[in-house]
Fold this sequence. Notes:
Blueprint: H1 3-11, E1 15-16, E2 19-20, E3 43-45, E4 49-50, E5 54-59, H2 65-78, E6 93-98, H3 103-114, E7 121-123, H4 143-152, E8 156-162, H5 164-168, H6 177-194, E9 197-203, H7 221-225, E10 228-235, E11 238-249, E12 258-263, E13 266-272, H8 278-281, H9 292-303, E14 309-310, H10 311-320, H11 325-335, E15 338-342, E16 349-353, E17 384-385, H12 392-407, H13 420-428, H14 441-451, E18 455-456
Amino acid sequence: MNGRDKLAAMRAQPVEGGRPTDKATPAIVAPKLSTVRPADVRWLWGGRIPYGKLTVVAGDPGVGKSYLTLAVAAAVTRGAPLPGDDGQREPGRVLLASYEDEPADTLRPRADLLGVDLDRCHVVEGVLDRPGDKPHPFGPADVEALAGSVARHPDLRLLVLDPVAAWIGAGVDTYRDNEVRAALDGLRLLAAEHGLAVLLVMHMRKSGAANALARLSGSGAYGQLVRSALLAGRDPDDDSRCALAHTKHNLAPRQPTIGYRIDDHGLTWTGEVADLDGERLAGHDPDDRQTQRGEAEAFLRDVLADGPRKASDIQATAEAHDLAASTVKNAKKRLGVLTERHGFGPGSYVTWSLPVIDGPHRDHRDHTYTPDPMVPMDESGPYAVTERNADLAWVGQWNEAAQARQRDGDATATTQVSDPDQVADEHAGSASGAVDGSGFDDALRLLEAELGAEVIDDQDGAA
């Protein structure tokens, strides 16, 4: 071994006190691509539901998402072909985790109608850690228990999580990409290792979006992690027609839209539907798409529907949904979204929330205004005024202060403004370039004293 090789060997060993030790050190596992054996994608449903991957089935309430998953379960447990597939298959087992439908009065009767082999369809009641314990709800922490079920039943072909948001649980913010990815990662790896097909049932956002995939409720990570996405919906021109469209297809060409009918006899596939795709089923007219402006407003209403959220999380989610920051900012102003700082300096953050019509802030119906308590000002950075305080009353006060400063010969006095949004822009310096805050101290303090207005920076943790 030459000197260079010895040095490389020493660097590869952990060192204590200048001497190599036998302790293990982290190492990146990176085999050569030439050693990876090519493999074909195997399909539970040709082109639509791959084995070893995550697939989404999404739709608005009432379009039969649970019926559709049971129809797939019926084909798997009986070894029957699904629409577009040829020939019989080896029958397999299905594991169904349903968080909204009761097994006795909903799942069993529907399974009977659809011809599910009941002995091959298992309904998850919970996870038992030790004999005698009370089962707890099945969730992301139970991937090891799921691996045990796969080991005991090698013919397990399909796992259905209906809906996946309930499986993930309340402890995960489903609008944060990193949390959603962390929650699904163990399941994704298990599916790949055992060749298990996983169906994630999802609701759609109540509001519109630029495309069908963007209407998936929650983080954009759902649409990014799955390899295939199916959208169930009704014909916007004839609500008696239902169809299942292929809206994401990483591993195969887009498959034709398949019609279906649900009645007293269960679910019946009605064949290919040429005039319906995911966009039409999602409510998008190809000749009249929703504008980015409407999409951004709909997005904010949806993410803020359950209460205040951190501004940084909303902005990250908007970016994941391909919404420009400027578009979201403008939509925020139009909706009168409220901004509130929590703390100052490092660790502080800003939340956004929808306006409360009868609350202590402004009322959008008559523009009445109730000042908020004054808070300490941070003099070290640029200023931005919260939208909740950008009321029409500000315009006159701002202009009076500007006129007074102009009469005193102050060349830095701001120009006249005509609406509350301009007041906020002047505070932030966005209307006339960057402002360091020092030239505005007197005017801003005067404005605070007169209005009781809260003057803050609109960025998380910024000075």
